[in-house]
Amino acid sequence: MGDLAVKAYDAAAIRNLALVGHSASGKTSLGEALLYTAGAVNRLGKVQDGSSILAHTSDEVKRQISIYLSLAQFEHKEHKINLLDCPGYADFVGEVHAGLQAADAALIVVNQLDKEQGNFAKAVQSIRAITDRAVPFVIPVGEGPGFEGVMPVLEEKAVLGDSKSPKLADVPGDLAGAIEEAKLQLTELAAESDDALLEKYLESGELSHDEVEKGFRTGIAQGRIFPIFATSAEKNLGISVLIDGILDLAPSPLDVGGTPGLRPGATEEAPIKGDPSDPLAALVFKVTSEVLPQDLYLLRVYSGKIEKGMEAYNARRDQAERIGQIYFFRGKERIDTDRLVAGDIGATVNLKSTSMNDCFSTKDGKIVLAPMSFPNPVHEVAVAPAKKGDEEKIGSWLNRLAGEDPTLQVRVDSSLHQTLIRCMGDLHIDVLLDRMKRRGQVEAEVYKPRIPFRETIRGSSDVAYRHKKQTGGRGQFADVSIKVEPLPRGDGFEFVDEIVGGVIPSKFIPAVEKGVVEKMTEGVVAGYPVVDVRVRLHFGSYHDVDSSEMAFKIAAKMAFKDGIEKAQPVLLEPISKVEVNVPDDYMGDVMGDLSSRRGKILGMESAVRGKRVVAMVPQAEIYQYSTKLRSMTQGRGRFSFEFDHYEEVPRDIQEKLVEQLRREQEEANA
After folding, report:
1. Multiple choice CATH, 455-567, 2.60.40.10, 3.40.50.920, 3.30.230.10, 1.10.3720.10
2. pTM recorded for the entire structure
3. Which residues, in sequence order, are CB contacts of 319 under 8 Å at separation 6+?
């Protein structure tokens, strides 16, 4: 990759390509094969033995999977390919969103045709069940262990053997029918993408090789055509044809619609297209500290250029930044460069006030690019330091990691004395804690989160309490009578002063309210805060000498406790609104599982490739649901949840639950 540091590529010669697919589909292995076949590396790296160029961090080597978005930039046939290898595990979906933001096209991996279960026709059938605008661009020669190469549909020769030194062969006779069928589909789809091509096709019934490729390129850029290739990354079969397909068919930054941005003086967003002569517009799509010992900022330049030593303007923060070193990357290998031009991807370091989703422009031509969106985290746990005294250290590291990962949220629940992490799953948590231990020398332990239960009342009461104490010296005296009544759910607390005739002096009324409010933090059912009550102070008495604010505060606390106990106290639990997207095949299992979690189904509607189920589910029953849903749906189910309201715990559950909560509190206080 020596020339890459000095050779500039126009946007038309750049291909920004994301590798995506489910876990274990072979994305990273395919990326390694692309690098090897293009001559960017001299050996075929493997994830399994730790020699991968793309999955190179200690976390990835340890687990033998891709965890982080990896950038590999290489040259081939006077083009530059910026390969963005995205993890397949759902726990790391945030990395996928970042990779797709920077890419102009995605390669959804259909690989491993050399395996026993390899079946190209079945794979094509499953893809075309989703969209009939997907069509094979090659036909495999052999399948399973007999897979030996591919037959490009528009060519006259098969390409066999290792893609590093492929051999051309005549078209196998048994593939003639499949090739003709695929060629017809290719031609029809290509014609539909361009009016002039369609007119010619309708008149003559055929298109030339170049016309089909032109139509296909247009249709791909429009997101209306999806070519299918066949490969074996492990045996390096079909890879050279795939690379040529990427160069010939994948859109350049000039072919796509651009990213939305707001220019100075404009009131509506407009696409920012890849013109190097336009004002600078670049987005920070990833911040990571896993590649270098300092924060690394990955940039996609949409227009203009970024040069070493220039002053760029962070439009989102109204802050100027001096651009220092600029790098290209191939895994962890970095290559110095002086500039990034429109359409290209690179990285810089040592920025003072820039974060993910920030954008760069010039101060005079300030442009704000539309920020990336990320899925909300769905897996919540509580964490605590393994060693007392490390609380501040853990908090600092968690906040730092959250700055690199938008699917990680950290929240301190002071009422329940716990630090909560929301992320995407168990593996996500394991990786985060490993990073803290490895880099921050601090260990944390994971716990089931305590639920923020609340207490309220179903009935009313009218109680009085007299606080009287004589122990020598000045005594204490306060006498209050209060009525305790329920309020509608969600109304909180209301204090009503109904004292007449000065039976309690006005200067002591605030102390009564304060005493009630303080006592509301600890209910009588299981010690949780009391909500949705009205307290009416309607009578009482005082002593000219012995009454004080403290005495009335104490009397109010005791009266409120007595009033709550006599007003049918109940436990409330938080209820979350849950939305589950699931393929039709798994609907029965998902509905049954939601019901077993005390969920109330609100409705069901059609969604992309399945159904969307909306339900109200107690928060206590959502713990570990992300793991269960993936297991039930073979990883194809997705869900989100958010707090909706509080609801009374059913009577048949409350007694057992209260006993459990009290036991947990005793253990926590031990």
Report:
1. 3.30.230.10
2. 0.88
3. 313, 352, 353, 354
